[in-house]
UniProtKB/TrEMBL annotation:
Top-rank taxon: Bacteria
Protein name (database record): L-rhamnose mutarotase
Organism: Saccharopolyspora gregorii
Lineage: Bacteria, Bacillati, Actinomycetota, Actinomycetes, Pseudonocardiales
Family matches, as Pfam families: rhaM
UniProt xrefs under Gene3D superfamilies: 3.30.70.100
Length: 116
């Protein structure tokens, strides 16, 4: 399982609209995210528009490929495109991935059985 964290920038003048649209994500888009293999998917938004996303998946490449080929995901990304700062491409394909630098369970597992 891989943990993925990414960031995007929502236009600060469009935050209310971003929140409105995410309060009622299309059911077919929710099913498409699930079918892509993404689990424990969350989005966090700062007041200045910095968006942080997190999900877990067994294969980032397979998940990305599934969504890239999905007409539903393409339609959703077009629907959301006007809310982001940037080149106007698909936000899901232009997000900046953040490297993981610490995970509590991983470090605890390294120390299991270690002598103090």
């Amino acid at each position: 399982m891989t943990r993925v964290c990414f960031q995007l920038q929502v236009d600060p003048d469009r935050i209310d609209e971003y929140l409105r649209r995410h309060a009622a994500v299309w059911p077919e888009m929710l099913r498409e995210l699930e079918a892509s293999g993404r689990r424990n998917y969350s989005l966090f938004l700062r007041p200045d528009g910095l968006l942080i996303g997190y999900y877990e998946t067994d294969s980032v490449a397979d998940s990305d490929a599934h969504l890239a080929a999905s007409p539903v995901a393409a339609r959703w990304e077009r629907y959301m495109a006007d809310l982001f700062v940037g080149d106007g491409g698909r936000a899901d394909q232009n997000a900046t991935a953040l490297p993981e630098v610490f995970h509590l369970a991983d470090q605890l597992a390294q120390h299991e059985g270690a002598q103090p």
